[in-house]
Amino acid sequence: MTNLEHIRTAVNNVQFNRFRFWLQIFFFALLVYGGYLGIELGKHLPTFACGYNKELRGGMCFLMPLQHWMEWPWEKLFSAAALTILYGFAIFFLWFIALNRGWCGFACPVGTIQDWITSLRRWTGIRYSRYSEGQYKGLGIIKWVLLALMFLIPLGIGGGWFTHDLKSPFCMICPGRTVVPLFGLDVSQWSIDFSSRTNMIMTSLGLLVTGLFFIGAFVKKRFFCFYCPMGALHYLFSKAALLRLNKEGAKCTRCGDCYRVCDLQIKEIADDIQNKNIMTDDCIMCLKCVAACPEPGALKATFAGIPIFEATEAGFIKRMNKGRTDDK
Amino acid sequence: MTNETSKVIPIQPVSYSRSRQAGESQDVLDHIIDDFQDNPESMQYFYDLFRSVYCHGDEIKHEGMLVGTTCIQAPEELIYAFGATPMRLCNGSYHYDQKGAEFMPSKSCSLVKATLGMLNSDNVIPKIGKPDMIVNPTTCDQKKKSSSMMGDMGYKVYDLEFPNVKESEASRQYWQRSVRQFATELRQLTGRKLTKKGLQAAFNKTGRAQAAFRKLHSYRLLSPSIILGKDIFLVTNAYFFDDITRWTEKVEALNVELEARKQAGFKAVQSKAPRVLFTGSPPIFPNLKLPLLIEEAGGVVVADESCSANRMLYDMTAVDEWMVNDMVDSLADKYLKPCTCPIFTKNEDRKRRLLDLVKSFDADGVVYQAFSGCQVYEMEYRSVAEAFNQAGIPMLYVETDYSPDDKGQLSTRIEAFLESMKNRKKQKQRALG
Amino acid sequence: MNRVFIVIAALSLSLVTSMSAANADVLWLTETAPPKASASQVADHAAHHHAMHSSTSAVSKTATSDSGKHDHTGMIVLDETPGKDHRPSKQVWLRRGDDIKKSPFSDLDGGDPSLTLIDQAGKKSVVEAGQENGLFTLKAEMPEVGFYEAYLEQRSVKEGRLLVELPKIELLWASCQPKEIDEEAVAKPIVNEAVALELVRIHKEDEGCMNRIVSGDVVNFQVLSYGKPVAGIPVSMVTQEGWRNTQTSDASGTVAFTMIREYFPNWLEFKKYHTDVFLVSAVMEKNESGALNGQSYSSVRYEATLPGKYRPSPHDYRSYAWGLGISFFVIVFGGLAVYLYRRRRLKPYKEVRVDDKS
């Protein structure tokens, strides 16, 4: 075996969940506490590095500037100033294509927090919930609606139809705003702003969603990701991304192991044997499916066409054996 | 008159080992062992095991309660988790096939008839003792209908409800409920609780066994083969009744030997031996008629798609949360989703699996066994044949049963089939070279 | 520095004659534009505001954090509202009189005016005053994010007394990009060691650029003379609504005022960015004699002023109790709903009914 093959085998045999846990911690520290170390990745990050987490954050979620731009008065929005927006989109796109929705599965602080809540539930021994097929189809639309509103409401502000208190409408209902700053001991987002009716409604909605977030994430794995408009925005660009989730239909036995472990309960991952690019709009690219696939090469993550993590029999056996012998 | 004779010549109780039934097994076993050269040394355990169980009628010991299963869809991890031992009842004996004929119409599946015949006989071989419960997954019609017959024989039968469609989410959930219900049933039967620890230990047992099987399976990828298909069938047949831990250890020992063979560049067959993929009705000892005929004629069974070997042990369970609820549901998924049994409405997965096996095991052709009366396999023949035809892979369809009568005729057909494969191979090589 | 220095001819031993700080005629600088600003001026102002947004070369302060403290609403700036802090230049006017609502805008009327601008780093620059509609105005350019202090000094002799008016204003170019801010520099007060009397607002240690004074805050001021603290100086505060308080500086020259709440609108008219102005002034009298432009005097009166801005306290409109209450309510009832739903699922399956209507 060559060195490269050695590395490949080592990677494919990795205890994936543990690896992912630490990688998530790394990204969490980077994005939530990076400011301490003077890290500034800019304000075009395709993940919930919440801007409300003031000086601690190591970068900023793109949705914040995006909504802000959309609030520009129209004459400005449709002027040369819009180049700022295009430039912003370009930076966002460059960040995005590097990891595709791996941003969600590995980097997103809100996703990581949800995984921690899931661990907490697991520790208590409470079972998780799943949506029924009908619920899954119905609720899956919400993220697209949120994405549309995230553009339309700010445009309405710029056009003078809505009050400025409605600014950053998605931020106001995003659980990231309330939850992420908590990690910097900042509870300032946990109040209701009674200064106007709009503020009151938006801050109330925000905390309502926060409450739902905690309940939801406790009983449903990656609860919020299913509704996340950032995820929907990602999906629009995902075809251009470098990191990909590929499936070789011929090698798939449709055993459903991948579907079994999928936090977003994506059935296509198991059943679709036609499409090579298997990523759906709900996929968070956590790659748990690759780790749980026993068929060599049936599922793989590729970067710019080069396989970086591939399903193997030996890897599967090693990982599942670990689970079986884990007493906790 | 008959009464008279019986009075004159009282029937002597014949020891089992001298019975016709033992003779049937003896013949096949001797054939497996003696008519082939270079049997792996580690196979000796399995030869001895079959000789003891089938030829001598020795008793098979088990721990806890005994739960008989009539199909691979009965989740054996659950049975182990309750401290009971699963035992696959599917039988391959011609003797029992004949005995069981009274339960079923004349043209029905030998396997089902043999199983019924076995359960109805006084001296059950393999000698497992009376099962505390028989789990009968509602798969094909013949198995479904044998449920009440087994009940009439005095067995406690549990019908494990199995869906006919596997693609839909509804049937998946239906099956998950079925499996959970089965767990409740087992709790009542054994009076024990289903614990995380117990289930994890059970997963460990089958997981290790499956890993060993997969390893064994991977040695069959080598060309020329280093182990023959008849031995593999014997090994997987032993899984039906052998102690799972011991079985696993012996397979692991076999794997070690095969690794050594691989390193040494050992050839169990000639390089030009046609490589055959076996599919269809399951060969179960002593009915290894067809695989033996193939390998006697100079072919080698390199892979199979049957519920007495590959389909039984290949697919592994993935669990996300190692808690009882998720483990049980994962089990359910594992026993339904990858299953390529022909009882389902669609057989796309079976076709894809077969094509993939041909490709990855570099098979030259396929032998499709259908037990006469096994309607589902007979019905699927057409679509499978079409798929192979399109892929340019030769297939031999064999309709047979447990009777040895058609051996001669089959032998001719198989020889001709293998010969044609050899020719194809030669032509291919010539075209390439 | 073409400033004429006054040579103090003689020092008198006589005591400071008056302790009264209240002076209805104080001169002070303000960011509030004169009320008669024409419509075109207002429009210019708004356009300017937006132009600042688009200038990407300037440190980008487009879309950033904190709705609570973030203020560029893009609406037209109204009269009587102090200038906003999100821009790198400010215009300052001069007013006379301590009635913040009514006191008139004024032009320079004394002799020897001098204008100094000091930035965070302590760099001094002399700036020229301008005139707009016959009124004094100063356009201060602030090249970097942070605080700037503008000092005006104006001297006049009346009835044998030299009046030194020292209005000062603290200007801020704020940014919500915390990383653009030098926190230490922001926390450190800017002091002009060349002035005889100066009021300095003591910044909080963690003040940063986005901090705003709100009702209920305790604001500390220090009275300095040539950079040294002076005790016993009366310091007065007047708020927009006319509330007054006078305190005397202690040994370290410090006085502390608690900002009162003066904003009581109806709930629906409540604006959390409503900004009021307060004015702090200090008076120091000394028996010094000398002459200014040929006029001799025997005593000197120093009048230092410093305006400030404050907003309603978040306590007036933000409620943590409600916030926590809502999320707690959702968590409890949501959790209960999930629990009950799961319990219900354990009950036997309910039959589907088909009747004539269906």
Explain this structure to me?
The complex is a heterotrimer of chains A (328), B (433) and C (358). Chain A is mainly α. Chain A contains 17 helices and four strands. Chain A is 52% helix and 5% strand. In chain A, strands 2-3-4 form a three-stranded antiparallel β-sheet. Chain A starts with a helix and ends with a helix. A four-stranded parallel β-sheet of chain B has the order 2-1-3-4, sandwiched between helices. In chain B, strand 5 (275-280), helix 12 (289-296) and strand 6 form a beta-alpha-beta unit. In chain B, helix 6 packs parallel to helix 7. Chain B has one domain. The model of chain B has no long low-confidence stretch (mean pLDDT 92). Chain B is 52% helix and 10% strand. The radius of gyration of chain B is 22 Å and the shape is globular. Chain C has 358 residues and is mainly β. Chain C has one domain (23-316). In chain C, strand 4 and strand 5 (124-126) form a beta hairpin. The longest helix of chain C has 27 residues, at 320-346. Chain A binds chain B through residues 122, 125, 127-128, 133, 249-261, 267, 270-271, 273, 288, 292-294, 313, 316-317, 320-321, 323-327, and chain B through 167, 169-170, 172, 197, 200, 203-204, 207-208, 211, 214, 218, 315-323, 325-326, 329-330, 333-334, 336-338, 349, 352-353, 355-356, 359. Strand 1 (192-193) of chain A pairs antiparallel with strand 20 (318-319) of chain C, so a sheet runs across the interface.
